[in-house]
Amino acid sequence: KLDVYVASVYLPDTSHTAAEITSARDLLNGDIAHYSQRRGHVLLLGDFNARVAAEPAPLGSEPSRAPTLGAADSNTPGVRLMQLCEEHDMFFLNGRTAGRRAGSKAS
């Protein structure tokens, strides 16, 4: 039996100080590390205040960690979010649903 650990996340936007943003990201990183050590999966939902570029995976390849539909480019918080995903072997679920058009906002 595997458990699913669900977290509701809000990361501060760029109007906050660098220290506040770093502190929030560090807390999230610690929580992911803690719950990843348990038997189960970690699922993060919420507002990451980040824009992550879409990276469709080529046919027959490993799926990309990034959304398959989404922004044309990543902003700095988006790059940091992708790094967090790589560190914890996580990937985006939004932008992977059938019928969404490229560039449409997640809802």
Write the layout of secondary structure elements.
Layout: E1 3-10, H1 18-36, E2 40-47, H2 76-87
Parallel strand pairs: 1-2
Notes on the structure:
This protein has helices at 18-36, 76-87, and strands at residues 3-10, 40-47. The protein has 107 residues and is α+β, with helices and mostly antiparallel strands. The radius of gyration is 14 Å and the shape is flat. The relative contact order is 0.19. The model has no long low-confidence stretch (mean pLDDT 82).
- Ends distance: 31 Å
Summing up helix and strand content along with how strands pair, one would put the structural category as: alpha+beta
What fraction of the residues are assigned to beta strands by DSSP?
Answer: 5-15%
Could you name the ranges where pLDDT drops below 50 across 5 or more consecutive residues?
Answer: none
